[in-house]
Amino acid sequence: MQALPGFRDFLPDDCAVRNYIFARWREVARRHAFIEWDGPVLESTELYKKKSGAEIVDQLFNFSDKGEREVAMRPELTPTLARVVAAHEREFKKPLKWFSIGQFFRYEKQQRGRLREHFQLNCDIIGEAGIAADIELVALCIDILRAFGFTEKDFVVRISDRDFWTDFLRERDVPADRWDELLQAIDKSGREPREKTAEKLGKLADPIFSILKTGGKSSKLDQLVDGLRERGLADYMAIDVGIVRGLAYYTGIVFEVFDRGGKLRAIAGGGRYDNLIAQLSDGAVSMPALGFAMGDVVLGELVNETAYAREKLEKAIANERKIDIYVVIAKEQRRADALAQIQQFRDHGYRVDYPLTGEKVGKQFQTAEQLGAPVAVLFGDEWPQIKVKNMATGHQELVPHDRLLAYLQALSSLSS
Ligand code: HAM
Q1: Quick check: CB of 56 below 6 Å from ligand 1?
Q2: For the whole model, what pTM was predicted?
Q3: Rounded to an integer, what distance in angstroms lies between the CA atom of residue 189 and that of residue 186?
Q4: How far is the CA of 269 from the centre of ligand 1 (A)?
Q5: pLDDT per position as a tens digit, 123-173
């Protein structure tokens, strides 16, 4: 029996990587004063049909539940966020700065960087229409990636403005009901053969290709660049009007993050969705909003391919894994005394391990080393004295058992 295609088993090493990613996400989101929330993994299919756009609806894991409700595993968080905010808006002071870490499901063709489940960090700001919020959000996205050890040489945030394109279409009298389809064609233009895009764009193909080549401009984008420059983050971004985003609800500034090498799929993506909350609440609540999500799959690949980011991860994992004290039981008669001591150590917050059954002393010291314990304490013939071994230097000392905890607490190599 194997896991389903596109679903991962998380063996301990994979879990360690996942925890490391979540820890960095949480740490930087908190540094930017975002607070954590979450929604359900199962939602009414209608929620996504209403607003996410055709591409995501095609990829839903959906079914009828036993109560004959049409339900779907969440493919993204934004519609849930809009639903929750519309329902609880009065309970919170605006703007809301919320983040969430959770698992999402999309029935996509499995390929490099794309699975059928993945984890996302979502960061959203609700209730602020000004460009300061867009700048803050992009800065947060950059800071999160910097926390993994990446520099401006490793990734770039490509930023665009959907209004730039909707203004363009309006000026050319393109009816609004065609905008979505044309925006999707522009969004896909970098990934599709030129002829295919040209066919979709019709008579607009030439002017659109020319803008994509020369680059577009808008005063909003200029302000964004200035804001990031003031924070010393301008080298991490580039204006790229070819970014439009596949999801249907975006309204203004949109962005995607890519590796500089251009080998991987997008690491993160997001933007403004000022109308979504009003649309989902049938106009009951109207609030500007913006946010982004970063996935764990592509991010994990980039960490793996970037030597210093990988070293940072390996160091953090080794540190997280290691125990503080290994208790060697050299004489089985001392097992009860050792267990009482182990309980006391653990109550004081130390990470402690010992052999569950009798084992040769040499083997126990070997285990102590493998587990990264800075000290091993030996319960044996020396009782009521305990032999304490510094595993790095090999230095040994005898300490009376009733002074053992105080002795270890004074050691700088033990953290707790
Ligand atoms: P998205 O661009 O669909 O945006 O997804 C965000 C990120 O999730 C992607 O850049 C990618 O890293 C990761 N991701 C998406 N699908 C998969 C997959 N099948 N396998 C692995 N990773 C994947 C959204 O989901 C928006 N709701 C983001 C947002 C939040 N907009 C505003 N607030």
Answers
A1: no
A2: 0.94
A3: 5
A4: 6
A5: 999 999 999 999 999 999 999 999 999 999 999 999 999 999 999 999 999
